[in-house]
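Hello everyone,

My group is preparing for a crystallization screen and wants a predicted model to guide construct design. The compound we'll soak is flavin-adenine dinucleotide. Before spending weeks at the bench, it would help to have a computed complex in hand. I've included the protein sequence and the ligand's SMILES below. Output in C-alpha cell form would be ideal because that's what our pipeline reads.
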Amino acid sequence: MTDVIVVGGGVIGLTAAIRLLERGAAVTVWSADDPLDTVSAVAAAAWYPTRTGENPQVARWAAATYRAFRRQLDDGVPGLLLRPTRNLFRTPIPALPWWTAAADGVELRDGITPYTQELHFLAPLAEMDIYLGWLAARVEEAGGRIERRRVTALAEAEADVVVNATGLAARALVNDPAVHPVRGHIVLVENPGITEAIRDQQNPAGNTYVHPRSRDVVLGGTFDVGRGDFDPDPAEAAAIIERCTGLAPELTGARFLAERIGLRPARHGGPRVEIDATDSRLIHAYGHGGAGMTLSWGCADEITELALGRR
Ligand SMILES: Cc1cc2nc3c(=O)[nH]c(=O)nc-3n(C[C@H](O)[C@H](O)[C@H](O)COP(=O)(O)OP(=O)(O)OC[C@H]3O[C@@H](n4cnc5c(N)ncnc54)[C@H](O)[C@@H]3O)c2cc1C
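Reply:
Good plan to model first. Here are the C-alpha cells for the complex, ready for your pipeline.
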C-alpha cells in the first residue's frame, strides 16, 4: 500500500486526500491550521475559473470539477448549491468564453443598458464552512487521518509520496517566487430570499459579484494582486455593499452579518501540479489563486494519477 502524506488541509489537500484514499493509498493530512481557518474557508466558492487564463490543463480540471460537483449535488452532499448565474458584460464578447464548454445551462442574451450582454449558466457553489467539514469527514471515513502539524520543511514528511498542497506557504517552503497573495475582501449580509448569482466584472467602480447562499449572501469583492495584509478597511466594505446593492436592489438594507479578508494563493504561470524535478516522491499542488474550489476535483484526479499511476 502506498503511504502518502498530504501537507495542507485546504480544499486542494482534502480533495486530493479523498481521491488517493479511493485508490487505496494510506493517507495522512498534515495541516498547520484547522481546515475552517484556511483561505479555502473564506472563499465565495462559486464554480468559476476567475483569472486562470485559458489552457487545456485548466480547462480539463475545471470541467472535471464541474461534473464532480453535479454528481455530488445529485447525491445531496451537504454545503453544495446550484445557482443560476448571470455574468454581465458592458462591452460585447466576441464568442462564448472557453469555460462555458464545461458548464450547463449556458445561454447568451442581450443585456439592458449599461450591459450589452448577459451570459447565463448554472454554477455549483459550496458553503465552505459546511463543505470543508464534509471533505474532512470523508477523509476520516475512508480511513485517512488529519493531524494539526506545521512543517518548517517538506523533508519532515517521510512517506512514499508527499503532496505539497500548502497554498501561499509554498512560496517559502519550496522557494517559489512566482507565488504571491491576491487579497480578497467580501461582505456577508442576510439573504432576503434571492437565489440568482450575478457578476459584473467590468464595473469601472470595481469587481462586483453577488452569491446567494442558503443563509446569507456573499457580496464581493476585491482582487488586489500582491497585497498580503489583513488590515480592515471600512470604506472598502461600504463600497462593496454599494456596488452589490446597485446590481441586486433586493439587497438594499439587508442586515450586515460579517466581513472576511482572505489571501488567494496565486502563482505567475498558473497552478503548479507536477512531480518535483529533483525529488520524485514529492508532488506539488499549489498556486490555485481565485479558482481553487473550481479546479479542486480535476486537480485531485491529476495528483492521484501522478502519485499512483506509475505504481
Ligand atoms: C475572498 C475570496 C473569494 C474566493 N472565491 C472563490 C470562488 O468563488 N471560487 C473558487 O474556486 N475559489 C475562490 N477563492 C480561491 C480559493 O479560496 C483558493 O483558490 C483555495 O482556497 C486554495 O486552496 P488551497 O488548499 O490551495 O489553500 P489553503 O486553503 O490556503 O490551504 C493551505 C493549507 O496548507 C496548510 N499549510 C500551510 N503551510 C503549512 C505548513 N508549513 N505546514 C503544514 N501545513 C501548512 C494550511 O494550514 C492549509 O491547511 C476565493 C478566495 C478568496 C480569498
